[in-house]
Specification:
alpha/beta, eight-stranded mixed sheet, six-stranded mixed sheet, 30 helices, globular, binds nicotinamide-adenine-dinucleotide
Length: 679
C-alpha cells in the first residue's frame, strides 16, 4: 500500500487551510497552495491564529505550534505538489475550475500521487476522467471545521482502486479522522439528510407549521442537538444551504429542491431572525416532520447502497454531533412509528417513495441490528476490526458477542493462518462501556456483569490458545479491557501512537479480563502491580522495550510487520526476560515491604525519592479495596494457569462491584474526581 507522508492541499481557503492544519498537527508534511501569495499568507495566518488560540486554551504547547507551522510549506507553484503522496483539492466549487486543476495536477504529479477532491456538490466521477489516473482518484469530503470535525467521507468512484481506498483510510487514521466509505451519490451520505434537515426547517416556516424559535426547539428535541437549523444556517452561511439543496433537487427530485423562502432569504442577504417565543402546541408537528424527513432520507440512502446503517449513524454522530444516529432514533421510536412518520412525508411528496429498507424492517417487526465488528479475510490473514469509533470501540455485551462470532468464523476457516485484531479510528479499544456497569449495579444485577465478564474471559482464553496466530494491532489508545484483549493475543504489533493502560483502580474496580496475570507473567508481578495501582499508561515504545510488543513500526509498515510475523512465527510471549533498569525502578516501588506500605498510604523506601513520593500520592487517589484485591489477584494469579487465574478473578467480581467505591468511581467517569470511602 502507498505510504502517506507528504500531502498537498490546493486552495488555502476555509476548508483547505483547516485540512492543512490538521494534517500538519498530526505530523504529516504539507504543501499548501493557492493562486496568489496573499491567499497563501491568509491561510497560514489563519492556521497560526487557531493554533495560538489552542495554546491559550492549553490544548497545545508553544513548541507544538512551531513544529506544526514548520511542517507546512506555503506556495503558489503547483509544481511543488509533484512528489506528494496525496493531493487534496479544496478550491472554489466550480466544475471548470476543479476540472482544469486536476488536469494540471495530473501533468505535474508523479505517478504515485493520489488525487482527491473535497467537492460537496459534484460527483467524484465528474473529475476522474480529467486525469490519466482514475484508479488513483477519489473523493475526500471533510466537514467544517476540518481541523476539529473528525468525520471524513471517503468516496471512491467506479474506477477507484482498492489500493487507493486503503491508502486514503490510512491517511485518515494518520490525521485523526474517522472515515466512512460512501458511494459516489448526490450529497454523499451526510449531506443527503442534513441538507433536507435545513431545507425542511425553511419549508415548515413557509407553510406556517411553526415560527422559527419553535422549529429550532423542535429540531433540538427531535435529534438531541445543541443548535437548531436556522442558527446553523446563520453561522455557516445561508448560500451553502441554498446551493446544496439546489444540487440535490436537481439530481434527486422536487422533495429536495430549495424552499422558496430559503432562496429569498439568501437574496435578502440577511440572517434568519431567531427572536420570539416557543409555541408548545406546535412542537409535536415540528418534531414529527423533522423525524419523517431525516429518518426517511437516511433509510433511502441505505436502501440505495450509498452507505451502511452503521456509517450513516456514525456520520450523524461524528459529523453533525447528533447524540444518536438516525437508525438509533428509529429503534427508539420503533419501526411502526418510524414508518408512520416517513409515510406522512411520502404522502406529501409524490417523488419521495417509502424506502424499501423500512418496509422490509416493518415486515420483520424487529429493531435494526448494528454490526460493530467487521471480519475481512485476505489470503491467509483474517482481520477483525472493532468498528465503533464513535465510542472509542468500547466493549459491551453486543460487541463482545460479535467479536466472539467473527473470531469463531475466522478460526473455522482452514485457509486462515493468522487472526489480526484492529480498532477503527483513533483507539484500539478504550475499555468497557462504563454506563453498562453503572446501570447493572443500580439495578442490582451484578450477575449480569458476571456473565458478561465470563464471556469476555472465555473469548480471551480462546484467542490466546488459538491454533492460529492471533495478533493485536496497537496503533492507538487502549485502556482496561482493550489492553487486556491485546495482552491475550499471541503477539502485539504497534505503532508509536499505541498505548496500554489500566485505569480501573481509579474508578473503584480492578482489571477483570485477565490482564493482570498476563502482564505479570511477562514483566513480573511487581511491575504489573505498579501499572495497575498507579494507572500509569504504557506507551508503545515502553511496551516494546518490555518485550510486550513484538514489532514497533510506522503506520504504513503495519501490514508488512504482520506478514513477517505470520511468515516466521512468534516465540511464546510468556517467558522470562531482562527488564530494563528504568522499569526495574518502577517495579521496586511495589516490591517486598513497599507494597503493604503503599496500600496503607505510608511512605515507601526507594533510591528515587521523587518517584517514591509520586507513587504514594498516585496510589492514594485510588480505591483502596480495588487496590488490595488487585494485588492479591496479581500475586496469586501468577502461580496459576490462565484459566484458573480467570476463575479467581471472577470469584472476586461480586465483592468488588458491590462496594460503594465501585458505584462512586464508575459514576464519576468524565464528570468529576471520585471520592472513595473504602467501603
Ligand atoms: N465550507 C464548507 O463547509 C465545506 C464543507 C465541505 C466541503 N467544502 C468544499 O470545499 C471546497 C472549498 O470550499 P471553501 O469553503 O474552503 O472555499 P473558499 O472560497 O474559502 O476557498 C477556496 C480557495 O481556493 C482558492 N483557489 C481557487 N482556484 C484555485 C486554483 N485553481 N488553484 C489554487 N487555489 C485556488 C481560492 O483562492 C480560495 O482561497 C469547495 O469545493 C466546497 O464545496 C466546503
Amino acid at each position: 500500500m502507498a505510504h502517506i507522508q507528504k500531502v498537498g492541499v490546493v486552495g488555502a481557503g476555509n476548508m483547505g487551510s483547516g485540512i492543512a492544519q490538521k494534517l500538519a498537527q498530526e505530523g504529516l508534511q504539507v504543501v499548501l497552495m493557492d493562486i496568489q501569495p496573499a491567499y497563501v499568507e491568509r491561510g497560514l495566518t489563519g492556521i497560526k491564529a487557531m493554533l495560538d488560540e489552542g495554546v491559550k486554551r492549553r490544548i497545545f504547547r508553544p513548541q507544538q505550534v512551531e513544529e506544526t507551522m514548520g511542517r507546512i510549506q506555503g506556495t503558489t507553484d503547483l509544481a511543488d505538489m509533484a512528489n506528494c503522496d496525496l493531493v487534496i483539492e479544496a478550491v472554489f466549487e466550480d466544475l471548470e475550475v476543479k476540472g482544469n486543476l486536476f488536469q494540471q495536477l495530473d501533468a505535474v504529479c508523479e505517478p504515485k500521487t493520489i488525487l482527491g477532491t473535497n467537492t460537496s456538490s459534484f460527483y467524484v466521477r465528474d473529475f476522474a476522467p480529467r486525469t490519466s489516473r482514475p484508479d488513483r482518484f477519489v473523493g475526500l469530503h471533510y466537514f467544517f471545521h476540518p481541523a476539529k470535525n473528525r468525520l471524513l467521507e471517503v468516496i471512491p468512484h467506479e474506477g477507484t482502486s482498492q489500493d487507493t481506498i486503503d491508502a486514503c483510510l490510512l491517511a485518515a487514521r494518520l490525521h485523526g479522522k474517522t472515515a466512512i466509505v460512501v458511494k459516489d451519490a448526490a450529497g454523499f451520505a451526510v449531506n443527503r439528510f442534513f441538507v433536507p434537515f435545513l431545507n425542511g426547517a425553511a419549508r415548515m416556516l413557509e407553510e406556517s407549521v411553526a415560527n422559527i424559535p419553535t422549529i429550532e426547539e423542535g429540531a433540538k428535541r427531535a435529534f438531541r442537538i445543541g443548535m437548531g437549523p436556522f442558527l446553523l444556517m446563520n453561522v455557516t452561511g445561508i448560500p451553502i444551504a441554498v446551493h446544496s439543496s439546489a444540487t440535490l433537487g436537481r439530481e434527486l427530485g422536487p422533495f429536495y429542491a430549495t424552499a422558496d423562502i430559503l432562496q429569498k432569504q439568501m437574496e435578502l442577504g440577511q440572517d434568519w431572525d431567531l427572536e420570539g417565543e416557543v409555541v408548545e402546541e406546535d412542537l409535536r408537528a415540528v418534531i414529527e416532520r423533522f423525524q419523517g424527513v431525516c429518518l426517511g432520507v437516511a433509510a433511502k440512502l441505505v436502501s440505495e447502497g450509498v452507505a451502511s446503517i452503521e456509517d450513516t449513524d456514525r456520520g450523524a454522530k461524528i459529523g453533525l454531533r447528533w447524540s444518536m444516529g438516525p437508525f438509533e432514533i428509529m429503534n427508539r421510536l420503533g419501526i411502526e412509528q418510524t414508518c408512520y412518520l416517513v409515510q406522512a412525508i411520502a404522502d406529501r411528496y409524490p417523488d419521495f417513495a417509502m424506502p424499501s429498507l423500512l418496509l422490509q424492517q416493518r415486515k420483520l417487526r424487529e429493531p435494526f441490528t448494528f454490526s460493530y465488528v467487521d471480519l475481512g479475510i485476505e489470503g491467509d490473514i483474517a482481520t477483525i476490526t472493532f468498528n465503533r469509533p464513535e465510542a472509542m470501540n468500547a466493549l459491551n455485551e453486543q460487541v463482545v458477542g460479535q467479536i466472539a462470532d467473527r473470531f469463531a468464523r475466522a478460526e473455522a476457516d482452514p485457509g486462515v493462518k493468522a487472526i489480526v485484531f484492529r480498532g477503527a479510528g483513533k483507539a484500539f479499544v478504550a475499555g468497557a462501556d462504563i454506563r453498562y456497569f453503572v446501570k447493572k449495579i443500580e439495578a442490582d444485577a451484578i450477575d449480569d456483569i458476571h456473565a458478561f465478564t465470563k464471556a469476555g474471559h472465555d473469548l480471551l482464553l480462546a484467542i490466546e490458545g488459538s491454533d492460529k496466530l492471533t495478533v493485536a494491532v496497537l496503533d492507538g489508545l487502549s485502556l482496561g479491557g482493550g489492553s487486556e484483549l491485546a495482552l491475550a493475543c499471541q503477539a502485539i504489533v504497534a505503532t508509536p501512537a499505541g498505548s496500554m493502560g489500566f485505569p480501573e483502580t481509579g474508578i473503584g474496580i480492578f482489571p477483570g479480563l485477565g490482564g493482570m496475570p498476563r502482564l505479570a507473567r511477562q514483566v513480573g508481578a511487581d511491575l504489573a502491580t505498579y501499572y495497575v495501582l498507579t494507572g500509569r499508561g504504557i506507551s508503545a515504545r515502553d511496551a516494546h522495550d518490555l518485550g510486550l510488543v513484538a514489532a514497533l513500526v510506522p503506520p504504513g509498515e503495519l501490514d508488512g510487520a504482520i506478514r513477517a510475523l505470520v511468515a516466521v512465527g512468534v516465540p511464546p510471549k510468556n517467558h522470562a526476560r531482562d527488564i530494563p533498569a528504568p522499569f526495574q525502578a518502577l517495579a521496586a516501588t511495589c516490591a517486598g515491604d513497599n507494597l503493604p506500605r503503599l496500600l496503607a498510604g505510608e511512605p515507601i523506601q526507594h533510591d528515587d525519592a521523587t518517584l517514591a513520593a509520586k507513587t504514594v500520592k498516585g496510589v492514594g487517589f485510588k480505591a483502596p479495596i480495588a487496590c488490595r484485591i488487585a494485588c492479591e489477584l496479581i500475586h496469586a494469579g501468577s502461580e496459576l494457569s490462565m484459566a484458573q487465574a480467570a476463575e479467581l478473578e471472577l470469584a472476586r467480581l461480586h465483592e468488588i462491584f458491590s462496594t460503594e467505591d465501585a458505584l462512586e468511581g464508575l459514576s464519576s467517569v468524565g464528570r468529576r474526581r471520585p471520592s472513595f470511602s473504602g467501603t
